[in-house]
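Colleagues,

For the teaching module next term, I've prepared a clean inverse folding example: a structure given as tokens, and then the sequence designed for it. I'd like students to try predicting residues themselves before seeing the answer, so please don't circulate the second half yet.
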């Protein structure tokens, strides 16, 4: 099968404008000194899968991953806690927006159509989102979108009325609470298309469910973190949150 087509990446002009806006708030030296890995772009699908279709879905994603460029990671996760009826999620991610754009070329249209037909025969696609991971910290210098099988990550979606303040507060969080996240990684991302409520999201990885509980409890017991959260409420509204268990990642 030829390369899978998924979605058109945001235009280069959009990315340039976004980067320029961030650099107005933080100098390049500040960002490079703090961020351990480059950001990446992604296409996210919330899906509902019947139990009998989970294995065929894993086989389909494994097959399609072999036809994708090595720069594209395919991740399947199970929703442990969720506010919707979706049971799983699929992420296609790459550090290169050009690679994702190439998958949308006319040359690869038939491959994309074939894959989507096969996918829709196994799952109910409930939501598709295009996004960018703006910042990533921690994770022992692994690629930002690298996930280990049976690891977990928490997700918090917000509607920000002040994106610059959201970036500023996240960078403060990354610096001030690194002792609580330990070897886990954290990220701040922005939704570009497909979401009518969430503008940004926070992500936090965990090595196990127990690690998730213990780390979350540590944040909750921190008065400094409680103060940090209260400040954010003046310009951010919580939209949704959840916990994902990584079933498998390809490439």
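(Answer key — instructors only)
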């Amino acid at each position: 099968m030829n390369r899978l087509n998924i979605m058109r990446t945001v235009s280069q002009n959009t990315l340039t404008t976004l980067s320029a806006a961030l650099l107005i708030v933080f100098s390049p030296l500040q960002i490079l000194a703090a961020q351990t890995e480059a950001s990446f772009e992604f296409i996210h699908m919330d899906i509902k899968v019947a139990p009998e279709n989970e294995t065929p879905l894993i086989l389909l994603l494994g097959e399609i991953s072999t036809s994708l460029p090595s720069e594209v990671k395919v991740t399947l996760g199970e929703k442990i806690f969720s506010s919707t009826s979706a049971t799983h999620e699929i992420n296609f991610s790459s550090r290169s927006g050009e690679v994702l754009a190439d998958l949308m070329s006319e040359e690869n249209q038939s491959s994309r159509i074939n894959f989507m037909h096969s996918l829709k025969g196994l799952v109910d696609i409930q939501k598709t989102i295009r996004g960018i991971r703006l910042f990533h910290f921690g994770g022992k210098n692994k690629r930002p979108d690298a996930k280990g099988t049976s690891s977990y990550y928490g997700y918090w979606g917000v509607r920000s009325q002040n994106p610059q303040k959201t970036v500023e507060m996240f960078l403060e969080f990354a610096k001030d609470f690194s002792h609580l996240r330990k070897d886990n990684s954290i990220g701040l991302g922005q939704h570009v298309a497909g979401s009518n409520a969430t503008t940004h999201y926070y992500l936090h990885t965990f090595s196990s469910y127990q690690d998730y509980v213990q780390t979350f409890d540590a944040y909750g017991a921190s008065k400094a973190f409680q103060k940090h959260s209260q400040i954010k409420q003046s310009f951010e509204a919580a939209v949704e949150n959840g916990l994902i268990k990584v079933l498998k990642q390809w490439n």
